[in-house]
Amino acid sequence: MSITFKKSLISAGIAIFAATTFSFNTMAKESSSTNVTNNYDSYPVNNNFDNEIVVNNDKTNFFLWSPMAQEAVVLVYENYDSESPVETLNMTKNEANGTWSATINLEKNKMLGKYYTFKIKFDNKWLEETPGIWAKAVSINGKRAAIIDFDKTNPKGWENDNSPALKNQADAIIYEMHHRDFSMHSNSGINNKGKFIAMIEKGTLSLNGEKTGIDHLKELGITHVHILPSYDYNSIDEKHLEKNKYNWGYDPQNYNTPEGSYSTNPADPYSRISEMKQMVMALHKAGIGVVMDVVYNHTAIGDGSNFSLTAPGYFYRHRQDGTYSDASGCGNETASDREMMRQYIINSVKYWTKEYHIDGFRFDLMAIHDIETMNQVATELRKINPDAILYGEGWTAGDSPLPIAKRALKDNAKQMPGVAVFSDDIRDAIKGHYSNVKERGFATGRTGDKETVKFGIVGATNHPQIDFSKCNNSKAAYTLSPLQVVNYVSCHDDPTLTDKLKLSMPESAENERLQAAKLAQTIVFTSQGMPFMFAGEEVFRDKKGVHNSFESPDSINAINWNNKKTYRDQFDYYKNLIALRKAHPAFRMTTAEDVAKHLVFDVIDSESIISYSLIDNANGDTAKEIKVIFNGSDKPMKVNIPSAKWNIIVSDGKIDLNGTKKSKGGKITIEPRSAKILTR
Ligand code: CA
């Protein structure tokens, strides 16, 4: 139901629900038809249920886990829109594992191209048809599952496609992108606008001649694209793509097949699958990994979802009165602590990794899931790809029956060593509170955020020079190492950085906001942890002040690529910032011990200055010492540094990796809203 509701709550959940139990009794809009006195935990389970169809040469088998169904059938259709099935197969139940099966004796070539659904009798009623929870190919709008030959979905050379190597998560530089945002604008120079295969177009240019598309990403230097939800979601009518509707996609329908509106032909089940693979392969060839945003925490609808139509009630959490509990703010929440739901999440992640070569996952509202599930996801995922990236939002958007101690919360991150969490601490401390749009932060001249920014700089680890009592949000280190934190200053939620600066600095000249943006991102990209940026920030992208743009038109969401020319200086700065991070392992330490030993803050008696050194060739750096100084005020500030032969790398909004300009140290000036970085 209410994605609006959700998206206004998602960020709101950050601190409130992490810290306290919260009564959310006004949000139950959808009542469950199931009897919650059901003891779901006593249901027989199927220990390896990740496939609902096996097509053999002479017969095809169907499977459905549905322990409480009284009867179950498979309906086979000639076409995705044919009215009557060509076959209706009665399924037989295996009481031991609650799984129904049926076989049709038909040759493979006669099965390929057909469609199917399941239907169960529950509580003496036949429920609606469903493609099941393991449909791997679907018809338009995902209503029927499609029988296809998966070998035909692989682009040429797919068997040799490899993930880019990644030594550790701190080496990743993540770019969060929505498919339409990136290519939809009329001046993107891209033909397949809003499609997966926008990414396979090389040599594209904006109207005024700047690189766009995948060439832009290569030029910028990011290591991973994080794509917003790309599984099949509910809100876009795939039969009417000409309406050009936009949605972020946080309304899951079929978890194991790509979204049809990002394909060139949603009516052809091959199209979305093969085109997404083409996108992944093109990015891999460019040396860029793909992280997928996954939303296993709730489904677009409750009662009519594929979960509800196969095992009513089982996959969700409920309140005492039988209504859906709603930690997602979207009308329902799934139950990862229940065996088959946990297994489903793990198997789905494994499936995307193996079948689509996805390199990592970002878990939406991760704290709706339990710690044990996330730990198992991490273990199983890295058995397939040891370099896989895994992070999530360590909060919920409402209260949950799942006890706080079991939630995959930011504050419980130490119990999930293989999982990283977003640092809302550094985000809000740098630029001001995400929802209080007028509030400023350290980079925009507010005082009181210094200690929280420092806490972000050390990757939320237990550093001896942080006074945790002075931090604004978390009052203790929550990571075991910097590999467990994602540092960022903006994402798809809330205003873009450009908009936030405009809203919080209403009297400012654009040049001042450009300076503040550079400073904000310099803090992010030099901090310990995994840096993350919202696509288009590098060209000073705005959303015309709209913060919750989940269904706003392209005119709000699409990146205007002419900005790249207008703000070329900004782009070059970001590009060099990324190069700076790559050139200096000191910014990418992997243990809390190293950070405590090699990152030393200077004691500076100003709330507007943060100054620290990365010392003793930190993490194998060529520089013996890197001095990093941030001035968040709108005035030039003087800072004393040791007398030495310093190379000036960053100064007054310019980056020179060669350090051509030198400094003898002593009293040096830091320009307003800027970073100074020197090496020796
Ligand atoms: Ca869809």
Can you walk through the features of this model?
The protein is an alpha/beta fold and 680 residues long. Among the domains are: 43-129, Immunoglobulin-like (Sandwich), CATH 2.60.40; 296-420, no CATH class; 597-679, Golgi alpha-mannosidase II (Immunoglobulin-like). 23% of the residues lie in helices and 19% in strands. The chain contains 17 helices and 28 strands. The strands form 6 sheets. The chain has an 8-stranded parallel β-barrel. Strands 20, 21, 22, 24, 25, 26 and 28 form a 7-stranded antiparallel β-sheet that branches. Strands 3, 4, 7, 8 and 9 form a 5-stranded antiparallel β-sheet that branches. Strand 24 (646-651) and strand 25 (654-655) form a beta hairpin. Helix 8 packs parallel to helix 9 and helix 10 (424-431) packs across helix 11. The longest helix is centred in the middle third of the chain and has 18 residues, at 339-356. The protein is globular and about 85 Å long. Mean pLDDT is 94; it is low at 1-36. The structure holds calcium ion.
